[in-house]
Amino acid sequence: SNEEDTYDTMETWMENWPTECKQLNLPDYYGNTLYLDVQPLPEGNMTLGIYMDEKCTIISPYMDLEAYIIQMYEQYYYYYGEDKGSEVAAYYAEAIETWNEKMSTFKTCQPCRAYNLFA
């Protein structure tokens, strides 16, 4: 069912969101070491951010998640083909958008108290 698919999708993503700042294998095009962590966005949304410091406080002005994924696949050009990096980046962008849409139920500003969303 659609509800089960939604649950499975959300459970998978919940388990895979980073829980701490992690160093990435590839530097940016200027040789800077890069890091990955959750990046908060307006309206309670989030994405995967590419950062320039080991505490993930400075967002990279040179590279975002899409650019990093494309760069990562460039080294495997002969194996995966020319468009694989863009395809994978589009998959992540769509998955993150779906996550943010499905979480919209919980993005209701209220005083800090427990409440039942389905009451």
Molecular structure report:
The chain is of the alpha+beta class. The protein has four helices and three strands. The protein has helices spanning 2-16, 65-74, 77-80, 84-102; strands at 22-23, 35-40, 46-51. Strands 1-2-3 form a three-stranded antiparallel beta sheet. β2 (35-40) and β3 (46-51) form a beta hairpin. The longest helix is centred in the C-terminal third of the chain and has 19 residues, at 84-102. The two termini are 23 Å apart. The mean pLDDT is 86.
Fold topology:
Elements lengths: L1 H15 L5 E2 L11 E6 L5 E6 L13 H10 L2 H4 L3 H19 L17
Antiparallel strand pairs: 1-2, 2-3
List keywords for this structure.
3 strands; three-stranded antiparallel sheet; 119 residues; 12% strand; alpha+beta
Task: Kindly provide the radius of gyration, computed on alpha-carbon positions and rounded to a whole number of angstroms.
Answer: 17 Å
End-to-end gap? 23 Å
Instruction: Write down the secondary-structure element order.
Output: HEEEHHH
Q: Number of helical runs?
A: 4
Query: Strand fraction band?
Result: 5-15%
Round the mean pLDDT to the nearest integer and report it: 86
Low-confidence stretches: none
Structural class: alpha+beta
State the helicity in percent bands.
40-55%
| Strand runs, count | 3
What is the 3D shape?
A: globular
* Strand arrangement, major sheet: 1-2-3
The largest sheet is: 3 strands, antiparallel
